[in-house]
Every structure is written in C-alpha cells, then in structure tokens.
Amino acid sequence: MTISKGERIPSTTFVKMTENGPEQVASDDFFAGRTVALFSVPGAFTPTCSARHLPGFVDKAEELKGKGVDEIACTAVNDAFVMGAWGKSASADGKVTMLADGNGDFAQAVGLTMDGSKFGMGTRGQRFSMIVKDGVVTELNVEAPGDFKVSSAEYLLDQI
Fold it and tell me: Domain Thioredoxin: where (predicted)?
C-alpha cells in the first residue's frame, strides 16, 4: 500500500557515503524533529535523473532551506558508492544528502516501487518527492511512469 499524506515514514535503514566509508542511517533518526524534502529517482546517472531531477534540487537548495526545509535528500535503489559518486559529479555535496536504498527496502516500505526489468534495472523506486515533518509526510508527489512534472524542486517549492 502506498504511503499517504499524514502517515509516518516507516522504519527502514538507508546508507550514505561518508569520508569513513558507508554509514547506516535509520529513517526514524533521519526524519525526527525536522523538515526534510526527500525525492526519489529510479537510478543514479540515468538521463532525466542526472540532467534535471538532481540538478534542480541542487540549484534550488537555498530556496528550499529559506522556506523552512532543514535537509534535502535524494534516494534511489543504488548502493552507497554509486550514490556518493553521483552526488560528487552533480556538485550536490553540502546541498543534497545522497541516501542509498540499495535493497529497495525504503521504496518497498512506502509502496512506491516500479519494475524496471525491461531496462535491466530490476525493481526500483518510483520518481517522487515529499515533504516530511518530524517523520510525517505532509506533501507527496508521485510521477506517472515516464513523467517528470510533480516531483521537481520547483513544484515542491510551490507547496511550501
């Protein structure tokens, strides 16, 4: 079942790349007591994700933070090494936290998976964005397959 506005983010674990290597991040801790703009992409280094989705959040990071967002995070069903490299290549350091959902546990827990098998990608997270306040989803924008409209940084900015 897909998560809805007003529901709490399920307890899962992400992994982020740090100077000391991969570090586990509990979702309960990550979202507690603050406002997070979270967006999901089907895969790091994929065309729309690299050309428009991540760069939009990097470019709009200050505007989002100016509207009360404490942290901006990107998640994808990729490993922490890939997410770390993608973040560096997109100049996301200090602007967007890259959270690996390597096994798809988070995507599955929020009910937002997609089948990318015909592209050799297996099960991935759908393209979406959300605002999470103290662990509760207050805005949720899920894209139709192949679209990039409602999950952009600009769209999310208009909702805050």
Answer: 3-160
* pLDDT tier for residue 49 given thresholds of 50, 70 and 90: low
For residue 26, what are its two tokens?
């509990």
Q: Structural domains in the chain?
A: 10-156 (3.40.30.10)
Alpha-carbon 78 to chain mean position? 12
**Cα–Cα distance between 49 and 29 in angstroms, integer?**
27
159, 62 Cβ separation under 8 angstroms: no
Active-site residue 49, yes or no? yes
Residue 157 β-bridge partners: none
Average pLDDT, the chain: 92
Of 15, 49, 130, 132, the catalytic one is: 49
What percentage of the chain exceeds 70 in pLDDT?
98
Within 10 A of 63 (CB to CB), how many other CB atoms are there?
13
